[in-house]
Amino acid sequence: MTYDIAIIGGGIVGLATARALLERTPSLHLVLCEKEAELGTHQTGHNSGVIHSGIYYKPGSFKARLCVEGVRLMTDFCDKHAIKYDRCGKVIVATSDDEIPRLKTLYERGVANGVPGVAMIDAARVREIEPHVRAVAGIHSPNTAIVDYGEVTTALGQELVARGVTIEYNFPVSAITRVRGGGVAVSTQHHTITTRRIVNCAGLYSDVVARLAGAAAEVQIVPFRGEYYFLKSEREGLVRGLIYPVPDPEFPFLGVHFTRTIHGEVEAGPNAVLAFAREGYRWTSVRPRELAGTLRYAGFWWMARKYWRVGAWEVHRSVSKKKFVESLQRLVPDLKAEDIKPGGSGVRAQAVLPDGTLLDDFSIVSSADAIHVLNAPSPGATASLAIGRHIAALAGETFGLQ
């Protein structure tokens, strides 16, 4: 049996892509290859659940366009499948006067991107929304929402199976070869499928899969672990919705923040430290070959030279609960060390260019028989259904789909 398209990666972007391909061309015979026993195990499964509104992103970028569209598509999907979400709102707060120019830039981006209801607010209004926050000014995004992306992933998988998509679980792709006469063989050590085209949504291994397929991927994935704490239940009242700092414009991470989850818990974090494996959720998670691959990459060392001070601080904060709490106290001074308990962690697939530049925007490249999603960090989950539609349109052009 030869499939029309094989999607490699069963996270939310891969699932959304399969759905969009069928929306565009219902007759397609699709297979989705997932290396784990369940869908959405890694980046999707460790997501904090925010449906981002589109404030942060440079107007005209893929992130800006696909995030704003993705919000609408995601909430429509949740409505269709009776998945609970909550427009709890977000405040982004400046804690000192020197952050106000950057705050204003974010506000201007939000307006340019068409984020509904976004507003600059003063300190008094910040306190009305989040009584325990200390700030000199802020941005209010009342329509920012939260959801359980695991539930979204489950619904997507059920929908795809009902429409005839084959899902190959426990399918870690180890080889991709062209078949004489046309087509592509996608193989594990024990099994092979044949397909006419592939779409690579492999997340933390997207660059590896691209190179297996013969693509000249310019970037390499460098994994960064983000570690969280939870507020203890008796102190969850310190946070009503989402509380974020003004991010560092030179670093594509949002800084430690507070996130109320759809299940009522409050997460505090994350930091951003180099992971020693692409699925390195703990300091003790080390895969020597993957770590060696990071350390051999020239782009990693150029990045390290540029960000070594930031990196050293992130490591210090990772091993020191006291420093982690001090960062959180910049936003919520009433928080104390005894108010938090260890939480989970996630790993971000950060694409790094050979000169050390951290690729900020989504990156999707194509060839005659393959499309590769090489960078889809936050707001990748928010934008996933819009990313899927973008890939489906690209597949229509690149693969000649009718």
Q: What can you see in these coordinates?
A:
The protein is of the alpha+beta class and 402 residues long. The protein folds into 3 domains: 1-87 and 144-219 and 362-402, FAD/NAD(P)-binding domain, CATH 3.50.50.60; 90-142, no CATH class; 222-358, D-Amino Acid Oxidase, Chain A, domain 2 (2-Layer Sandwich). Helices cover 32% and strands 25% of the residues. The protein has 10 helices and 20 strands. It has helices spanning 12-24, 62-80, 100-112, 123-129, 149-162, 206-212, 288-296, 298-319, 321-329, 384-399, and strands at 2-8, 30-33, 50-51, 85-86, 90-94, 119-122, 137-141, 145-147, 166-168, 175-178, 184-187, 192-200, 220-231, 242-245, 257-260, 266-269, 273-274, 340-352, 363-366, 370-375. The strands form 3 sheets. Strands 5, 6, 7, 13, 14, 15, 16, 17 and 18 form a 9-stranded mixed beta sheet that branches. Strands 1, 2, 9, 10, 11, 12, 19 and 20 form an 8-stranded mixed beta sheet that branches. Strand 19 and strand 20 (370-375) form a beta hairpin. Helix 1 (12-24) packs parallel to helix 5 (149-162) and helix 2 (62-80) crosses helix 10 (384-399). The longest helix is centred in the last third of the chain and has 22 residues, at 298-319. The chain is globular, with a radius of gyration of 21 Å.
Kindly name the structural category. Answer: alpha+beta
Q: What is the number of beta strands?
A: 20
- When the domains are counted, the total is 3
Tell me which oligomeric state these chains represent: single chain
Total number of helical segments? 10
CATH architecture of the largest domain: 3-Layer(bba) Sandwich
CATH superfamily of the largest domain, called what?
FAD/NAD(P)-binding domain
Tell me the span between the first and last alpha carbons. Answer: 21 Å
Instruction: Name the shape in a single word.
Output: globular
Beta-strand residue percentage: 25-35%
Run of helices and strands: EHEEHEEHEHEEHEEEEHEEEEEHHHEEEH
**Rg from alpha-carbon coordinates:** 21 Å
CATH topology term of the largest domain: FAD/NAD(P)-binding domain
Residues in helix, %: 25-40%
CATH class of the largest domain: Alpha Beta
- Which residues form runs of ≥5 with pLDDT under 50? none
The major β-sheet equals: 9 strands, mixed
Task: Indicate the mean pLDDT.
Answer: 95
